[in-house]
Amino acid sequence: MNKVNPFKPNSPVSTGMFAGRMKEIVLLEKALFQTKNGLPCNILVTGERGIGKSSLMMILKDFASGYVETLEHGKFNFLTIGGMVSDKTDLVTLIRLIERNVQREIGKTDALRKYLSATWAFAKRIRIMDSGIEAEDAISDPDIIIDEFAYSLAQTCERISRPEKGEERKDGILFIIDEADNASDSLRIGYFFKVVTELLQQHGCHNIMFVVVGLPEIADKLLSSHESSLRIFNQVKITELSPSDRKRVVDLGLEEANRINEDKTKISEEAKSHISTLSEGYPHFIQQFSYSAFDFSSDGEISSDDVLDGAFDKGGAIDSIGARYYAADYHSKIKSDEYRQVLSIMAESMNSWIKKSEIREKFSGADQTLTDALAALTKRKIILKNSSARGEYRLQQRGFAIWIKLFGERRK
Ligand SMILES: Nc1ncnc2c1ncn2[C@@H]1O[C@H](COP(=O)(O)OP(=O)(O)O)[C@@H](O)[C@H]1O
Ligand SMILES: [Mg+2]
């Protein structure tokens, strides 16, 4: 049968396929409303890999730009700028990236292009180390670069909030900075946001909102680069989807499938429950289990067996999820079966703290091997060592724990 598979295990979903997150959406909407009215809100969105941060940001973008009407505040019209941080992003790249995006989004008329080019002229004067550019007015001091940046941003925001004749009026600017946990120490990301938001205030610019997105460890990263940088953000922690939202993800997918395919697809209630239970609420698991079940089903109805075969068979969902998210940790960073046994024992406690003595009771190898394994796994950041209780460890991520458990189940 030739059916297009609607499920999206590999990329964020947009409005049509998005389920749940009501509380988070209401909160983000409120933050946009506050910002539009001169009380800027900055938000830090944290959550494990595959929990749905980038998908939520796509929804936020649709709301902020006015592409979709919000639940309680009508349509917004923010200039919305998105960007991603990699471990190679430095201050200059970050600023140039933002400048370019601003140009692209609003530099649509001659007058605005001219305005932007004058307002952001400083960006051309940034001297990059070793580039050989030695212009007299070149700037290289990070504090001066940040100062110029904040000033240009404030000017730009002022112009689009109070446009000249024929230009469109904007509510302000929304920045969405995804994968910020990648930031290198030298980017000093906490310091950057702290200083920029303060300078914007000083320049009388009160309608710019920053949303910074990353793995939970981003909070420590912000703190370590500036001790009070966390205080400028309201933190939103993204967690597992509720059982009814999990089923909604499956339903939305099948609605889409039946819209685009001539051959219709149904799913049994039991099969849906299996997807919900196996996934433990992790959206990337739901999408992948659904994708594989859809693939395995050969008649018009997805059964429990389709779900289980799709999940556990070779090349099925567990393998795909592993390859995409966890295999790097599980296979390539850990060469020894004994180390993997330690992880399996730990996974039984998901990601809560577990005493070394409890692991030892279940571990079949030598004491020294266990000691070595814990040290090596901690060093590779696959597990965490409790700094306030001796001899306690835990897995970093719940998603990883679920995957290890499912991977072990497969042999049965
Ligand atoms: N609310 C949601 N409804 C349906 N699918 C979702 C939802 N959130 C995430 N997903 C799916 O889960 C997977 C991971 O989502 P993503 O937004 O990329 O997570 P993150 O950015 O946290 O790693 C994607 O395949 C996406 O399609
Ligand atoms: Mg993401």
Question: Short summary of the structure?
Answer:
With 412 residues, the protein is of the alpha/beta class. The chain is 51% helix and 10% strand.
Task: Average the pLDDT over all residues and give the rounded result.
Answer: 91
- Shape assignment: globular
How many angstroms does the end-to-end distance come to?
A: 31 Å
CATH class of the largest domain: Alpha Beta
Number of domains: 3
The biggest sheet amounts to: 5 strands, parallel
Structural class: alpha/beta
Low-confidence stretches: none
| The CATH architecture of the largest domain | 3-Layer(aba) Sandwich
Bound molecules: adenosine-5'-diphosphate, magnesium ion
| Biggest sheet, spatial arrangement of strands | 2-3-4-1-5
Please compute the radius of gyration using only Cα atoms: 24 Å
- Helix content estimate: 40-55%
The H-level CATH homologous superfamily of the largest domain, spelled out, is P-loop containing nucleotide triphosphate hydrolases
CATH topology of the largest domain: Rossmann fold
Oligomer: single chain
Number of helices: 17
Descriptive tags:
single chain, alpha/beta, Helicase, Ruva Protein, domain 3, Arc Repressor Mutant, subunit A, three-stranded antiparallel sheet, 17 helices, binds adenosine-5'-diphosphate, binds magnesium ion
Task: Tell me what the structure shows.
By secondary structure, this protein is of the alpha/beta class. It has three domains: 21-237, P-loop containing nucleotide triphosphate hydrolases (Rossmann fold, 3-Layer(aba) Sandwich), CATH 3.40.50.300; 243-319, Helicase, Ruva Protein, domain 3 (Orthogonal Bundle); 336-409, Winged helix-like DNA-binding domain superfamily/Winged helix DNA-binding domain (Arc Repressor Mutant, subunit A), CATH 1.10.10.10. The protein is built from 17 helices and ten strands. Strands 2-3-4-1-5 form a five-stranded parallel β-sheet. A three-stranded antiparallel β-sheet has the order 8-10-9. Strands 6-7 form a two-stranded parallel sheet. Strand 9 and strand 10 (392-395) form a beta hairpin. Helix 10 (269-279) packs parallel to helix 12. The longest helix is centred in the middle third of the chain and has 20 residues, at 142-161. The chain is globular and about 70 Å long. The chain starts with 21 loop residues before the first helix and ends with a helix. 38% of the residues are buried. Magnesium ion binds at residues 53-54, 178. The site of magnesium ion has 3 residues, from helix 2.
